[in-house]
Amino acid sequence: MSQLLACNLQHYQQTVLRSPFFPVLFSLTVYLSCCFPYACLDLLCSRLTLFHRFKIQPQKKVTWVMAWRCLRKIFHNHVCFLLPLSVMHWYWKPVVSPQLAPDVLSVVRDVLACLLLFDMQYFLWHLLHHKVSWLYHSFHKEHHLNTATFSLTTEYTGVWEMLSLSFFSMLNPALLDCHPLTEMFFFITNIYLSVEAHSGYEFPWSPHKLVPFGLYGGAQHHDLHHLKFKVNYAPYFTHWDRLFGTLREE
Q: Do residues 149 and 198 lie in contact, with contact meaning Cβ atoms separated by under 8 Å?
């Protein structure tokens, strides 16, 4: 009986993972889950001194109208653009699940490698779309409507920017021949770090305070980019901005 249940569960898991709708639902669920605690702080607990003192720009208030505008954009992009692409990808390249899971060290190594690659790709994309005026006004300006970031602005982007970043996210695990489980961990990590960088909060446990030598930027690093526009182009790490002379620390 237990073997039968295990087989049925495994079959169900394989069916779900191989569904053409799974990537979009997975992405949307992870993204909204990462945004939820920060959104609660912005919308429900803004007057609590305990949390409000950690806000980077405390004078800026997030309203329900702003949050709903971001949510509309996010659902529109996922349903109208990511979903059709996900179905096409599923049709041309069905998901294959290996029998064995990767070891922990391989997962950590590959996730870090994917993050470093993504950081380089987005830095170059981002720098180009700020330096070339028509690229900025045509494709990236929409993301800069808010000079004070909050979690739901993470994916408040135009279609071209969303597709570009999604392409980088899918390309890197393929280039490194990552295990599907590693690929999922990379997606989760990438989405969380991106939301955290846009959260508008600096907590004692924020990721950049856990990484030594100022190698990681974090929320204040990216908040300065939205405030100053011409600094801090890298999404996560600081080495590319140091190299190009665009790093700003306050």
A: yes
* Helix, strand, coil percentages in the chain from 3-state DSSP, rounded to 5: 70, 0, 30
- Determine contact, residues 20/86, Cβ cutoff 8 Å: yes
- Region 227-232: mean pLDDT is 92
CA atoms within 13 A on the CB side of 77: 21
Residue 155 CA to residue 74 CA, distance in Å, equals 6
Look up residue 17 and give its two tokens: 């993972």
pLDDT digits (tens, 9 = 90+) for 204-223: 999 999 999 899 999 999 99
Spatial separation of the C-alpha atoms in residues 16 and 220, rounded to whole Å = 38
Q: Tell me the C-alpha distance between 110 and 182, whole Å.
A: 7
Residue 249 has a pLDDT of 83
pTM of the full structure:
0.90
- Residue 183 phi/psi, 5-degree rounding, is -60, -40
**Residue-wise pLDDT tens digits, 168-195:** 999 999 999 999 889 999 999 999 999 9
CB 129 within 8 A of CB 135: yes
**In the numeric block, which tokens belong to residue 95?**
């998901």
The answer to whether 211 touches 238, Cβ cutoff 8 Å, is: no
